[in-house]
Amino acid sequence: MGAIAAGIAMAGAAIGGGIGDGIVISKMLEGMARQPELSGELRTNMFIGVGLVEAMPIIAFVISLLVMNK
């Protein structure tokens, strides 16, 4: 039962991370298209945002391992 819960948690985290990354990157590209002079600052903020979004699946992976081994 723990393995099923871990799989569901990881699937949700992967889907959420993918959607979040897509939204962050698309909005950054939209901002660059509107104001090309801010592309450097937007790119920096995008990398920070993607890093924060990607932290969620990593945390979910650790928690799913803990649930599975319990």
UniProtKB/TrEMBL annotation:
Molecular function terms from GO: lipid binding; proton-transporting ATP synthase activity, rotational mechanism
Membrane topology reported for the UniProt record: Multi-pass membrane protein
Keywords: ATP synthesis, Cell membrane, CF(0), Hydrogen ion transport, Ion transport, Lipid-binding, Membrane, Transmembrane, Transmembrane helix, Transport
Domain V-ATPase proteolipid subunit C-like: 4-66
Marked site (Reversibly protonated during proton transport) residue numbers: E54
Residues annotated as transmembrane: 46-68
A Pfam entry, by short name: ATP-synt_C
Places the protein is found: Cell membrane; Membrane
Family note: Belongs to the ATPase C chain family.
Function: F(1)F(0) ATP synthase produces ATP from ADP in the presence of a proton or sodium gradient. F-type ATPases consist of two structural domains, F(1) containing the extramembraneous catalytic core and F(0) containing the membrane proton channel, linked together by a central stalk and a peripheral stalk. During catalysis, ATP synthesis in the catalytic domain of F(1) is coupled via a rotary mechanism of the central stalk subunits to proton translocation. Key component of the F(0) channel; it plays a direct role in translocation across the membrane. A homomeric c-ring of between 10-14 subunits forms the central stalk rotor element with the F(1) delta and epsilon subunits.
Protein name (record): ATP synthase subunit c
Organism of provenance: Apilactobacillus ozensis DSM 23829 = JCM 17196
Taxonomic classification: Bacteria, Bacillati, Bacillota, Bacilli, Lactobacillales
The encoding gene: atpE
